Predict the structure.
Amino acid sequence: MASPLFLRILCSCLLFCVISLATGPKAHGEEVTEAKLKAIFLVNVLGYAEWPGRPKPATYGVCVAASEELSSEVRSYVQLKGLDARIQLRSLDGARNLDGCDVVFVENDTVRGESYILKEAREKRVLSIGAGERFIGKGGIIRIYLKDRKLAFDISATAADASRIKIDARLLSLAKKVY
């Protein structure tokens, strides 16, 4: 079994590669879409968040309020990496209940009930990730977006603290902005 330090270093390298990836027209004969990059980030960020005072879950609940394209990309990536037993994916179609969610992804600023989702995420210590321009200002923790055809992200350390979630210093150092 690999040591926890080795696994953290491996995860760091993987996350750095994903974030640094220039999304040219093709990569290994396959188009790298914005949805695919967001899905990869969403799954890999789990290794960079801790919930102090709470045991590390055997299975992470990842809830998404997103398009079918993005939900499908997350599902595909989880299956590709063989993480089906470690990540339980759930769509927040009509229900906005975050019970069982460790992470919630809100695709954009037009998601119905976004304010309620963010309030509940803060109260239930759920890591909130979103792509809307005003996501951080509304209380979200991590905002992901494309900048110069690369995936970039901002982190609100203030919102993470309010949710009692610890963001790893390595992830903070890679963020474009930390609030």
